[in-house]
Structures are given as structure tokens and as C-alpha cells.
Amino acid sequence: MENKVLEVENLRTSFISNKKTFNAVDGVSFHINEGETIGVVGESGCGKSVTSLSIMGLIKRPGEVNADKISFQDNNLLKLNKEKMRKIRGNRISMIFQEPMTSLNPVYRVGEQIAESIRIHEKVRSSKLKNRVIDLLEMVGIPRPKEVYRYYPHQLSGGMRQRVMIAIAMACNPDLLIADEPTTALDVTIQAQILELMKELQESRGMSMMLITHDLGVVSEVCDRVVVMYAGKIVETGKVENILNHPQHPYTKGLIASLPKKGQNNGRLNYIPGQVPSPLNWGKGCRFADRCTYVMDKCLEKIPPLLDVSSEQQSACWLCEEKGGSSFANERGKVDQATIARSE
Amino acid sequence: MLMKEEKLIKQPLLEVNNLKKHFPITKGIFSKEVGAVKAVDGLSFTINKGETLGIVGESGCGKSTAARMIIRLIESSEGSIRLEGQEISEINGKKLRAIRKDIQMVFQDPFASLNPRWTVRRTLLEPMKVYGIGKQRDREEKVYDLLNKVGLDESYAYRHPHEFSGGQRQRIGIARALVLNPKLIIADEPVSALDISVQSQVINLLQDLQEEYDLTYLFITHDLSVVEHIADRVAVMYLGKIVELADKEKLFNNPLHPYTEALISAAPEVETENKKERIILSGDVPSPANPPKGCPFHTRCPKAMDICKEETPKFKETFEGQYTACHLY
């Protein structure tokens, strides 16, 4: 049985806009197993970044985080006071942000910024500290680490800065790394380097990773499981192969079909008509209903829950209730037969 | 399709020859020139009528600088730009104004490229006012016509940019570029600020408009999958130079230059089966202020030879219709 590092149940994060309260994240549940990488995908405004900030306890008032459960290893993150939360944040859960230029302090040397994150969480002698920082810089593939220790962020390129960010995140050997669009601001060849580095570090340390991205290509390269979000809700979740090859939710289908593909030259691209609804105008039904080609009466009435498509894939679509129920039964049947065969 | 190809061969619309832009680096109180950032360093290409030429490259390779020179937002340091045979890199005053009408641009950031205090209607009327085209009634008709063409409701004409989503704003930006019936449209990363589902809507729109108005596009992007979809020919830039230029099919199926090869293989793919072997380049793009001697790519090239460090490779036709600058060929 796999150990769950992080478990989130029914997360709701609300903000206030024009005196109206709305949930930017509205009832999100998922878990991350030990040593696993999950991807969270969705378009801008779907709540993927807010989800990660809520887990980290970084939502500021008047924003409010509610959940049935956010547990990290044995800690209930909802109940921790600020002091204890600070001990976990940056130490056992750390985070990498999208823009390496704005997340580093421009007036401190990069070496000192990495050292700071170690100093906050551990008592280390300063002579040892410097060596540890230089080792970290070397680990993330920065050439001439002793020299770079004394550099300011502006002396580094975008890719190098993101490596420094990774070094800061890895400084205390976290058990969970949350990376929010870590490669979006980078060029493709640099993106490939950084993704490779993150994969290596994750494998060598058995760390769990939550990768937030809008790029399905990145998900396919790095992740084991994926969570697809739309308008504050999870619409589909499952293993990467299943989601990318056999998407069940019309939104996931549309998203994958929208990508320009080889051999589809000069034809028209598929697209999803309409736009993402504003959180202030979410109706009572499925939030994808007004853009969905398969929309039924039921969709306008009631939000579909996550329904089992197979034992490894869930989809929040009423269509899956009708056809999915039977196919899930079939899957189950196969599993049962397999176990029977084995026991014999 | 055949007709389109015939047309392509016959009429060059834009010819760029040995275009250069060197930004001076100055020092001291007398601004003494101590060097130059060679943002664009010898660019040559042709765009034919009705064609889409894609320019791909990483940030800092000079693709946007090239576009800005063509549209005459910045002056070129050297080289010629000819639109329908007429040299436009030197002209000024009235002649330049007349030419400006023929080349229009769609910008990357739809949030920054529209005046937030103007209604859509005013944004679209402005170019016609500037050029004194038509009477007020004709102009307004044209505005509504264009709004329909780019898939926006006529009632949106009196709204301000903040009332629209990113995709809708980009549609307004496209409509603005079309107001003056330009011959060439330069689209600088027109879809990179948009979400995937909206991105495909805008790409489709650009293709529909191209067919309808027989437009010619210079399409600048860093996204290979987009350029593979929309372009007829593709130029790959690295450090201010074109390293490879070929028909889309040839370039993607049989890339010649090691940089093109690495770029194509580095792009993450959604395909989960038959994953290709990726080439991961080491290091960063060198600074254009101090480009390496010889081939600019040799510092990162997996196939670098001794000659690459010494001699800059010539840009030549390696196979029919496929140009590359590499010592391997």
C-alpha cells in the first residue's frame, strides 16, 4: 500500500470581490503518494495556483481557506498555528514559483539567499553553511558554483535563476515540492534542461512533487498522475496515460484536441467554443455546460461529482454515469477474474 | 492548393537582405562606444504573396527586433528591406506614412497593446481617420463589418478593453491590424499569452482571414507546434542569424541544423507512446554583445567540429528549398 504524503479533502478557498464572496477553489479533493509526481493542469483562472497556495497556508485575508482535511504526513495543516506552519513551509514542503526574476531578491547575493533558507530551519555553523550552499549550487548544475555564490540575480540568465530557485527549494531536503509553472517563463531548450533536473532530483531523493502547469506536454513528460481543473473544480483525474489517451470529460477531450498536432497540417484546429465563466457567474449546474457539445438537461441542474470511469480514472461528467457505470463494472470484472485466477 | 503554390513562386512581397541591427554599448560621460549588441546580424529572407513565413527562436535571438525593423519602428543598421520591390529601409516622411499602411502588426500582449481609455469603436476608427479613408458612415460600416469578421458581437463596439477576455482582446488587435487592408501582417507571438482552448480559436481566425483577404503573414513565435500548424515556410533564428530556412514539411521531418534538431526534440509532446529520444542542449544562449567566434551555436552544439570554432558557416541552399548555415553540409 502506498503512503499518502498529502491528502486534501473538499478544499474551498474563497475571496471577496465587489462585496460578493466566491470560491476560487470549490471542493477540490486529491492526494499525493510518496515519491509520486502529480500534475495539476487547467487554464488561467481555474484555481490551480490558489490550490497550491492554500496548501502552503499562503492565502492572505480576506481570502479564506476551508477544507474537511489538509493533511501532510501526520500533520493537519489546517490546525497548525503560524509558528508550526513556518517550520513545515520551506523545510518539508517547499515551493518553486513561475517567475525566477521576481521571486529572488535582487539586492542579495544568490548564495546568501540559499543560505538563508537553511539558516531558518537548521542550526548550522557558517563555515559549513557556505559549503552546503556550494554543494547545492553544484547539484542543480550551475557551473563555477564558488563564483556564482557571490553573484546577484541580475547576473544570471533565466534558466540559471530557476536553478537557484530549485536550490533554495531543495535546501532542506523537502518531502514535497510544489512547483507552480516552473518552466513557463523559460525557452524550450532551457525548459528541457530544468525538467530533466527536477526529474533527476525527484528520483534520487524519493521526493513527491506537485507540478502545476497549463502545458499538457510537460505533464506527459514528467508526471505519473494528473488532475485536470476547470472553474475551481476537478473535472478529471487519473494516470497520465489514461487521461491523455482516453480522456472522458468533454473539457479534457477539447483541451487535448485543441493542441496543434503533426499531420493535421493546414486544416482547422479543434477548439472549445466560448470562454471560461467568471467565478461570479457560476450557475448551479456543471460549469462546463455552456461550452459543452454533449450538454444534457441534467447538466444544467446539478453539478456532477467525480465518477469512476475505471479504478484509475475519475471524471466529473454525467455522461460517465451512464456509459461509465457499465464499463467500470467490466473493468472490475476483469480485476476480479484476475484475482480469482491468481488465487487458484 | 495548387493555385496557391503557383502564386507563391511568382510574387515576392517582402525581400529582406542582409538586415542588421547593432545596438551600441556606451560607457562614460561622453557615451563612448565600447561595443555593440548584435541583436540581428545579417538576416535574409523573402516572403511571397499569400504565404505565411514563421520565424522561430528562443528569447533574445532577435526575432522581435527584426519585425520592428521591417515595420520601421526602429531603424536598421545595415541591409535592405523591400516591399513589392520598393526599398523601405531608407524612406521617410510622406512616403513612409504611405508604406506604413501596408504593413500592420499584431502584438503579443493584448492587455498592453490596446488603449484602455478608448472604446473598441474608437480604436478601430482611428487608423481610418489618420489616413482619411472614407466618410464617417463608411468607416463605421467597416468597423462593424470587421467586428463580425473577427467573431465579436456588434454590441461590443462601445465597450472598453478591460471588459474583454484575453482572447477577445486579441481579436480586437487583429481587427485593428485589418482596418487599413494591409498587404503584410506581422504577428509577434500573437497567441502565446492565451490559453490553449482560446489559442486554437485565434489561430483558426488568422487562417480564415488569410484565405478571405489573401493576406501575407510574418508569424513570429517560440512555439514550434503553432508554427508547424500555421506556416508554409519556417526560419529558425539563433543569436541574430537564421540557421535554417525551409518548407515546413522539410524542416520538421528532416531538420538539418543541429539547433533545429534540438529545438524540435526539446518541445514536450503530449504523445505518451513512442516517446522520442530528446536532445538536451547544455548551457545557455551566449550574449549577443559578445557572440562566440565562428559558428554562434558551436558552444552548445553536440556535433561541433574544430572548424566551427574558427569559421562562420555560410548560409547556403543545402537541398532544394532548404537553406542552412552549418559546416556539416
Automatic annotation (TrEMBL), chain A:
Segments forming domain ABC transporter: 6-256
Main location group: membrane
Location in or out of the cell: Cell membrane
Keyword terms: ATP-binding, Cell membrane, Membrane, Nucleotide-binding, Transport
Tagged with keyword Protein biosynthesis: no
Listed InterPro entries: AAA+_ATPase, ABC_Ni/Peptide_Import, ABC_transporter-like_ATP-bd, ABC_transporter-like_CS, Oligopep_ABC_C, P-loop_NTPase
GO biological process: peptide transport
Pfam families membership: ABC_tran, oligo_HPY
Keyword rRNA processing attributed: no
Molecular function GO terms recorded: ATP binding; ATP hydrolysis activity
Domain of life the protein comes from: Bacteria
Transmembrane segments: none
NCBIfam families named in the record: oligo_HPY
PANTHER family from the UniProt entry: DIPEPTIDE TRANSPORT ATP-BINDING PROTEIN DPPD, OLIGOPEPTIDE TRANSPORT ATP-BINDING PROTEIN APPD
Protein name (record): Peptide ABC transporter ATP-binding protein
Organism listed in the record: Pontibacillus marinus BH030004 = DSM 16465
